[in-house]
Structure formats: structure tokens, C-alpha cells
Amino acid sequence: MLRFLVLTSFTALVLAELEFQPRYLKNTQGRLNAEVATPNSWPWQVKSSYIHYYHYCGGSLIQRRWVISSARCIDRWRAVQGEHDLSVRSDAEQIIAVHSIHIYPKWSGLSLCFSHDIALVKLSSEAILNSYVQLVSLPSPGQILQHNNPCYSNLPMFSPAPLKQAFAPVVDYQTCSSRGWWGTVINNGMICAGRSEISCYGYLGGPLSCQVDGKYYVHGSLSVTTGSGCDNKEKPPIFTRLSDYTDWINSVILMACSAGGK
Question: pTM to 2 decimals?
């Protein structure tokens, strides 16, 4: 059975129910190395895992019963929400079983093809929004972030280590698709951002949280890490660009609602 643990809190993907800004341990802009996040400071971060806790992927809570993640990660999950440190059980945690999984139709499932690496997961019950668990907003359809736009990504909680955060500025498509960088591996449906530990330890499916006009949006879902060194500037992590999929996301949720579910 797949279940989810909401690691921190969330802000709305399609309809924002709460306005929330992350609480940082300190200002990390300009520092690409990861550091421990303030507890519950990224309230839309979700951890998914197998029933026995051994599988780690991430996701973003966009509505009370809906999570965005990587298509490569959605086998036998559970959702864990509100968690900060695996070594400590907390009243903030919410563990929710999965009701259904919706993979983008053009996802190929091939290990060497990363296009359309996106999935929606419907939870079996609503997440309870509070100081630890909230929703995150999606970007506008088709929106493309500028080079060096400030973003953050999170690193997994390998017990006893708590959740970490890393500054992950955007690398524009022209640069990231050039020779010596990712080249033809990437396309316009992807975002390159960050470097350092994200390249080795990032949560697949985890959010790329970006600040635009003073507000945070989830612009990406982690899809590709290098596996070839933790500080390879020319091989930054690759995220699925969610602004390319907002119509599909909204249609899946609306169809589920019209079928009688929330």
C-alpha cells in the first residue's frame, strides 16, 4: 500500500486556501550547499515511502487530497505529512494512504527518457491544514522562470538527520541544453536548477519552490539527478516544469470532483 507523510505543511496548488511563506534557518541565497531547515518551514513538502519506510521520494501537496510527484516514484507509496526528523515522532505528522494514482499519459516509463515525468496522487482522506501542513500554489500556465530566479529544493531525511534545504537558482534552457551541460537530454518541459547535494541526494518528485513577486510557487518536481558527483556545475538537477502541465493537472482534479470525489 502506498501512503504519504506530509513533511512540513502545504499551500494551495489550484486554489490557495492559506498564504504561507517559508521560515528559514537563515538566509541561504548565494550558498548552494544544503543546510538543516527550520522545522516545518516548507509546509508543502511531502515524503512518500513504502509501507516499511525504506523508499524515499518527495511530493507537493497542492490540494487537501492531491499530491504532485514524479511518475518514477509512485509505486506502493504512503504519504507522510508534517515530518521534520525521522528519528523523532511528532504530533505534526500525518500519514495518509493513497486512493488513486494518475500518471501523465505520455510518460514512457523508460529509464533513459525523462520527459513527462509527472504524476498526481489522490489521497484516501484530506490532509488537515495547520501550522505544519499546508498547500502550495502552481505557477501560471506556460510560465518560464528567468535565469538565476531564486528557488529552493529539499534533501531527504535519512534518520537521524532532519530535512535539509538547498538554494537552487534556475539555469536557463539555453545554458542547460548547451554542449558540455545536459545537451539534448533536456527539453522545454524541464527546468535545470541548483547543484551540490541536490545532485546526489535530492528527493525524486520533491518540489522546486521558487519565489516570484514575493510569493512561493512549486515550479518543478525533481526528475533527474546526476549520480556522477555532488558538485558538477554542468549537470544540475533536472525538474519537470509544472507550468507545462497545469491544464492536465486541473483536468484530472476536476474530473475526479465531477465523479463524486473531492
Answer: 0.81
